[in-house]
Each structure stands twice: as structure tokens, then as C-alpha cells.
Amino acid sequence: MIGVYERVSTSKQDFLSQHEALAQYLERTGSMESARFYQDTVSGGRFDREGLNRLMADVSKGRIQEVLCWRLCRLGRSLSGVLQVLNHFQRHGVGFCSISDNIDTRNQNPMARLQIQMLGAFCEFERETIKSRIKVGIEAARKRGSRFGRPPLETGKRTKVKELLNKGVSPAEIARETKVSLPTVYRIRSRS
């Protein structure tokens, strides 16, 4: 059985391009009937993913003999995480093939192992670059006056919460009556 792993980072993306490329590869090699697909919609920086976890479990149980992926970065964005997954495959005698990167460990080629490490490092670099850009964007937005998080509590509600606290009303009762979250009531109480 061939495990075919597909991943997109957000629900705004779709699997279409990688799915089509993988399906064409499977058709070309006559392997479509023996393919089992695993999909995730989550950041490649996280390795606790439902689809990947199912694939890893099936590899451990001997249900999967080889794993196909569109690109190595679909497997993960951190070098250590990708290598951990690939080492798991290797321990269970499962070959890995990234069809777009032309990486194939199914024939135990040492050059493929080197390529994986180099591409994994580039994937990690790309992820760190993305994180850095996001951080710079958030800082720029803050300088322009953009606010993040919940909007501030209306002054009238804050005053009402303080009045009820001074009367000895329980925080839970205040939260229900004013429709202010309980943690906010506690925060107002601690700052008073």
C-alpha cells in the first residue's frame, strides 16, 4: 500500500494542484489502486496533525510500504520534524518519494538523504522568513494605530461591574448580569 500525504496550511487553500500531480504520478506508475490518501489543513510547523498521525500509525502497523508527497515542505517546515518523520519511515522499511523535488529514498540512495537534509533546511528557512515578515507586518500595523485582540470594554459596563463588585455581588453573578466575561470581571476586580 502507498501512503499519499497532502497538506495545505489554511482552509483558504485547496489540495487540487498537489492532488492532481500525485494522481498523475500514481496513474503513470500504475499505482492508483494501491494508494491511500492522508490530508491535513494545518501549518507545516506543527507535527501534531491528524492526517500525518494516521499515516505514521499505518506505517508503524506495516500497512504502508512507501509514502508519496508532492513536495518535501508538505511533510513539514522544520528540519528536525521532517527528519524525525523520515527516520520513522526508514525504521519501518518504508521508502519516501517527493515527486516535485525528485527525492526518492526507496532505493536507499545516500544522495537522496543529503537532498532531504538540504531541502529540509530550506523549508525551515522559508518558515522562519514567513514568521519574520508577519512580525514586521504586525509591528507596522501597530505603528499605524491598528489594534489587535478584543475591543476595550465600554466605560459604562466597566463602571457597572465596579459598582456591583463594591456591593459585594459575586463575580459569576456580575458576569451574567452585565454580559461581561468572568475573566474580565476578575481583571477589573484585581485592578480596583
Record the SSE blueprint.
Elements: E1 2-8, H1 16-28, E2 35-41, H2 50-60, E3 66-69, H3 72-75, H4 79-91, E4 95-98, E5 103-104, H5 110-143, H6 155-166, H7 171-178, H8 182-191
Parallel strand pairs: 1-2, 1-3, 3-4
Antiparallel strand pairs: 4-5
Helix pairs in contact: 4-5, 6-7, 7-8
Describe this structure in words.
- The protein is α/β, with parallel strands linked by helices and 192 residues long.
- Helix content is 55%, strand content 12%.
- It contains eight helices and five strands; from the N terminus they run E-H-E-H-E-H-H-E-E-H-H-H-H.
- The mean pLDDT is 87.
Briefly characterize the structure:
This protein is α/β, with parallel strands linked by helices and 192 residues long.
CATH superfamily caption of the largest domain: Resolvase, N-terminal catalytic domain
Q: Could you estimate the helical fraction of the residues in percent?
A: 40-55%
The total count of strands amounts to 5
Q: Could you name the CATH class of the largest domain?
A: Alpha Beta
Q: The CATH topology of the largest domain is what? A: Rossmann fold
Order of helices and strands: EHEHEHHEEHHHH
The poorly predicted ranges are none
